[in-house]
Structures are given as structure tokens and as C-alpha cells.
């Protein structure tokens, strides 16, 4: 298909822009730069991700829902977060827990109604918070009416909403008949080929994720127009922006050449950054985002740090920020957990500070619904060190460069789940991988389960632990959709809100601190000791407002001497009681974290 003429399309959509919004935007003067940065609310925000299925069940069906979220808004406001990112809440058959959308303008029945959504949104606004929602438009559900139509016939008006291709003739089978092969060797992220044969028209359709998640064809201008329209639908309701699911995958090479062996090694990179990705994001920005005061963050699978300014640079008019996975995946090799390497993590953060200048904003995060629990992965979830290490990680996230994204339950120090068998998992990625690897004898069952105990996405999807009652107070149902972590009797919100020394209350103090001092948002970042294998010590400085953060990433005590030029004034916050003294050498206990004001 010929690429669309973007200018014509843009002009057409621009005529639909609400004039009042355009006028009000142009009359607001831009605030003065801070350390070269244009200040905005989303740079200063702390974002909290809610995975609605696992947050709070209000109606006793074992599944979290929107009224459940509304009932916990005071808890979030007290924590001090400014923006809530809500994972998909749309109507979906749940092949991938809502990341397979059947109707973009409808709320998932298990989660409630549109009226419930409106009540939640009003509650968020009343508490001076904002809401961003998940925009999943690389693919839809196969039950979306576009796809239901598309698969009916080759001349259906919706056929070109998706990618349909003929198979390739393969070698003859034992019966002498030629066997059909998929159009190319693209693998799916969820195991097997990315192409699914459909008998109705004897062609294959593309699905980078599950068979039930067919990829949309963004080269079709009608698809793009549909997406912009659904975005406006939610923005006009008052949502404050989007987290964009696998957004670098939206543009494909329609010739679908075979991937080379090298590309097959990391096919995410090969799928990202297609020929029109930037054109489409710029068009989306012109037609939608530019007309609202919104925040956008792209899940940027396959985009290198060096490519990042092309997506988030202010002069590019694409997205505000992206999630880059260098840090969160620094201790991962596929489904295997690698030993944590502090030197590598520090090098990544320094590299970010070097590559992203004042015109390209960053994000900072080490957890989300696709990754295991932060304290079990980057900290130490043993009885002795769970609390200090969870606090240390929160200290780091909330004092580093970039907008911090916290994942639900991390403010409580929730941990990985003790998975024992394949039946304990819900995730389609795990179930497909089990079929592809264990049932075929490629990986022994024990190894597979042992690896996933550390890395499965279900670790972070177990229900929130609200109190010590049955199922952690998440649901009144006998059984939640995914088992509650049995440690809810010790780790739960009720206990932590009441305990002044809890991870929750420490996180609250950190968020207050970030909000009180722009140095943590716009200040310069400097790693004082990049070669130190157990200490991460860095400064954040904005004029005379200067801070030192010292983190002991080990379970043993460490004496750390500051570089001569760095002079400490007073202790601002620490995760242990022992940190009162102000000297040039710090005797840090295992997983101790301190923040000092500098002279
Ligand atoms: C990324 C999402 O974060 C993940 O949960 C989902 O499975 C895939 N995209 C497909 O939508």
C-alpha cells in the first residue's frame, strides 16, 4: 500500500480541532526555564501505576474494579502521587488481561460501567491528581468489530485495517502435497510464528503478540483516523494523557522480509522504528495531543537511548517521554535472572544524563505489570533486608533524573510470589512459553518454573495486600482471580499506613521531598563514584540547592568516604535510625540510604 500523504490528512483533521482549546493554549505564557528545562506538570509529577484487575475488588467477584480504585483514592492522595496510570480498562475478552481491546469506547464489564469511570475520574480531579490511560493501538482483540469484519472476506472494507498475506509454499508433506508456511519468519513475543492462518480467506494475519491480538495496519489512513478519534473521546472526558503500549511497533515494512539470524536474536529491535513511525507520531501529535494539555509516555520497546531524542525531543512534537528498558532489564537474560550489577546500573543512569539533554525528558522506573517485584529483583526480600532495601530503591527512584513511575504495591514492599507449578500462573506469555519449551522437552519443567519464579510478570500481578483479613482484603470472594501472596498477613497497607516507619510512610516523605525541591526534578546529576561496586553516591544540584544521595546496595556494612570537594551540611532523610552523624566518612549499614543537604 502507498504511504498516505500526511499533510493532506493533517489538514483535514486540523479543521476538526475545537477552537476554544486552541485559543486558550496560545494565550498562556510559557513559564521561565529552570536549569534550561521548560517546567511542566508532568516533569514534576510522581506517577503511580494501577493494574485494575489486581488493585481492589468492590463487588466480590474476585476481580479488581473501578469502584474499588475510587474507594482507595484517599490512600493514593495521602501517598502524594500526582498522576495515576491506569492499565487497560476497556472492554476485552482478556486474552492478555485487557491488552487485547474489543471496544475502545466501553469499560470492561468486570471493571464496572462508564458511570463508574466518570465517578473515578471526578474523584481523582477533586483530589488534585490526574489520570492517564493505556492506549493499546498496535493491535486490537480479534473480537474487535474491525477484525470480525476484516477476516470475513478479502474485499471487506475493513480488510486493510490489518495485515493479511498469502502463505509461502513450503516443502511437500508425506502425502506429496505442498505444505503452506507463514509469509515470513517473524516470531511472536508470545511464542510461535507471528502469523496465524485463517481458513475463511486462506490467508495469514499478523500478530506480534497473542493469536487473539492482530496488529493494526497504520499505513491505512482510516486506521489512524479511528485511533485519533478514540483518543479524543477519552481526552474530551477529561483524562490527562496516555501511556502508549508498544508504540514503536506501529509502522511495519509492508514487504515483510524474513528476519536475518542476527535480527532474530532480538526481534523486538527489528520490529521497532519502522519506516513511518515518526511520521505517524507527529501526525498524532498535531491532530490530537497538541490540542490538549496532556502527558504522553511511550512504551519504547526496541528504541535505543541514542534514538530516544527523536521521539521525545521538544522540537520533534511526538511524545513527552518514553520508557527505555536498559535499567529494568539490566539483570535479565530472557526469562533468566542475571546477578545484579550495580556498576552497570550506574553506567546506564549516567549514559541517560549524557544523551538526554534539557530538551528530551526521561522516565525512571524499575517495576511495572510486565516485570517482577522491585524489592525481590533489585533489592533483598529477606526478612532482614526487605524493608530497608525497598526504602533504598524508593530513595533512588524518587531522587534520580526523570519522571518517576511507581508500581502498585511497591510502596508496601510487596514481594515476588512463591510459584510452584504451571497451574499457579495466569499469564498467556508463560502458558504459551510452557507449551513451546517445556511440553516439547526443550527446557526441563523445574528450570522453567524456577526461572519464572524470579521473572514472571505474574509476580507483580498478584492482588494488592490491603489488610490482614482473608485474601488481604482485596476481595470478599473465596478466591481472587490470581492468588494473593501468602505474606499479606505481614505486608499490607493497613499496617503500613499506621506505622510511621513503614515503607509506605517513607515513600510519602520522599515524594514530599521531591515536590518541595526542584533540585530533584531539574537539578544536575552527578555520579560521585562510578566504580564503587556497592555504593551508589550521586548529587542533584540546582544552584545553591544541592543534595547528596548515598545508597549502600549491599547487605554488609560499608564505610564510604566522600570525595574531598563534597561537603555535607545536614541529614535530610534516611531509611535507618542510625544516620544522624555528619562526617566525611559514612558507616553505612546493609541497604542503608541517606539524603544530605550539601554546603
Ligand atoms: C506491553 C504491555 O505492557 C504488556 O502487558 C502486553 O502484554 C503487551 N504490550 C501487548 O499489548
TrEMBL record:
Biological process, per Gene Ontology: oligosaccharide catabolic process
Keywords: Glycosidase, Hydrolase
Source species, domain of life: Bacteria
UniProt key word Hydrolase: yes
Keyword set includes Cell wall biogenesis/degradation: no
Pfam families tied to this protein: Alpha-amylase, SusG_C
GO molecular function: alpha-amylase activity; oligo-1,6-glucosidase activity
SUPFAM superfamilies noted in UniProt: (Trans)glycosidases (SSF51445), Glycosyl hydrolase domain (SSF51011)
CDD domains: AmyAc_SI_OligoGlu_DGase
Sequence ranges assigned to domain Glycosyl hydrolase family 13 catalytic in this UniProt record: 49-461
Signal peptide range: none
EC code: 3.2.1.10
Assigned protein family: Belongs to the glycosyl hydrolase 13 family.
Name used for this protein in its record: Oligo-1,6-glucosidase
Amino acid at each position: 500500500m502507498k504511504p498516505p500523504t500526511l499533510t493532506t490528512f493533517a489538514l483535514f483533521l486540523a479543521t476538526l480541532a475545537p477552537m476554544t482549546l486552541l485559543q486558550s493554549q496560545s494565550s498562556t505564557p510559557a513559564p521561565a526555564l529552570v536549569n534550561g528545562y521548560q517546567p511542566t506538570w508532568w516533569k514534576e509529577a510522581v506517577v503511580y501505576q494501577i493494574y485494575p484487575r489486581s488493585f481492589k475488588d468492590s463487588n466480590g467477584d474476585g476481580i479488581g474494579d473501578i469502584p474499588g480504585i475510587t474507594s482507595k483514592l484517599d490512600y493514593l492522595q495521602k501517598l502524594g502521587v500526582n498522576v495515576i496510570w491506569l492499565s487497560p480498562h476497556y472492554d476485552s475478552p482478556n486474552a492478555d488481561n485487557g491488552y487485547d481491546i474489543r471496544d475502545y469506547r466501553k469499560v470492561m464489564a468486570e471493571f464496572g460501567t462508564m458511570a463508574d469511570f466518570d465517578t473515578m475520574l471526578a474523584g481523582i480531579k477533586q483530589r488534585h491528581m490526574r489520570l492517564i490511560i493505556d492506549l493499546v493501538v498496535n493491535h486490537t482483540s480479534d473480537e474487535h468489530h474491525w477484525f470480525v469484519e476484516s477476516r470475513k472476506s478479502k474485499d471487506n472494507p475493513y480488510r486493510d485495517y490489518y495485515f493479511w498475506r498469502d502463505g509461502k509454499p513450503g516443502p511437500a508433506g508425506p502425502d506429496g502435497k505442498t505444505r503452506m508456511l507463514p509469509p515470513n519468519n517473524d516470531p511472536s513475543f508470545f511464542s510461535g510464528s507471528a502469523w496465524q492462518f485463517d481458513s475463511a480467506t486462506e490467508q495469514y494475519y499478523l500478530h506480534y503478540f497473542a493469536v487473539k491480538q492482530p496488529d493494526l495496519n497504520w499505513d491505512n489512513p482510516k486506521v489512524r483516523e479511528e485511533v485519533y478519534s478514540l483518543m479524543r473521546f477519552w481526552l474530551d472526558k477529561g483524562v490527562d494523557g496516555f501511556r502508549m503500549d508498544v508504540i514503536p511497533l506501529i509502522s511495519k515494512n509492508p514487504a515483510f522480509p524474513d528476519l536475518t539470524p542476527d535480527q532474530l536474536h532480538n526481534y523486538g529491535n527489528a520490529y521497532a522504528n519502522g519506516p513511518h513511525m515518526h511520521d505517524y507520531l507527529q501526525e498524532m501529535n498535531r491532530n490530537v495531543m497538541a490540542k490538549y494539555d496532556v502527558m504522553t509516555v511511550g512504551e519504547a520497546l526496541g528504541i535505543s537511548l541514542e534514538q530516544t531524542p527523536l521521539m521525545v525531543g521538544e522540537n520533534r512534537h511526538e511524545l513527552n517521554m518514553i520508557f527505555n528498558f536498559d535499567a529494568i532489564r539490566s539483570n535479565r537474560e530472557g526469562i533468566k535472572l542475571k546477578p545484579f550489577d550495580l556498576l552497570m546500573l550506574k553506567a546506564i543512569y549516567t549514559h541517560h544524563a549524557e544523551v538526554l539533554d534539557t530538551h528530551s525528558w526521561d522516565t525512571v522506573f524499575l517495576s511495572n505489570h510486565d516485570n517482577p517485584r522491585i524489592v525481590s529483583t533489585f533489592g533483598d526480600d529477606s526478612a532482614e533486608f526487605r524493608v530497608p532495601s525497598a526504602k533504598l530503591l524508593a530513595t533512588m527512584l524518587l531522587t534520580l533524573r526523570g519522571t518517576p513511575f511507581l508500581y502498585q504495591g511497591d510502596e508496601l514492599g510487596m514481594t515476588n510470589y512463591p510459584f510452584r507449578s504451571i497451574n499457579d500462573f495466569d499469564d498467556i506469555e508463560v502458558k504459551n512459553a510452557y507449551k513451546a519449551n517445556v511440553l516439547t522437552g526443550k527446557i526441563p519443567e523445574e528450570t522453567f518454573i524456577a526461572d519464572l519464579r524470579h521473572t514472571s510478570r505474574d509476580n507483580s500481578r498478584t492482588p494488592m495486600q490491603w489488610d490482614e483479613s482473608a485474601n488481604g482484603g482485596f476481595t470478599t470472594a473465596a478466591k481472587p482471580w490470581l492468588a494473593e501472596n501468602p505474606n499479606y498477613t505481614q505486608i499490607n497497607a493497613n499496617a503500613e499506613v499506621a506505622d510511621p516507619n513503614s515503607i509506605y510512610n517513607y515513600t510519602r516523605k520522599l515524594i514530599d521531598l521531591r515536590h518541595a525541591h526542584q533540585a530533584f526534578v531539574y537539578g544536575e546529576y552527578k555520579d560521585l563514584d562510578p566504580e564503587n561496586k556497592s555504593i551508589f553516591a550521586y548529587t542533584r544540584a540546582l544552584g545553591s540547592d544541592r543534595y547528596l544521595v548515598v545508597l549502600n546496595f549491599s547487605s554488609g556494612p560499608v564505610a564510604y568516604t566522600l570525595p574531598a570537594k563534597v561537603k555535607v551540611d545536614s541529614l535530610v532523610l534516611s531509611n535507618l535510625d542510625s544516620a544522624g552523624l555528619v562526617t566525611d566518612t559514612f558507616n553505612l549499614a546493609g541497604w542503608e540510604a541517606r539524603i544530605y543537604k550539601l554546603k
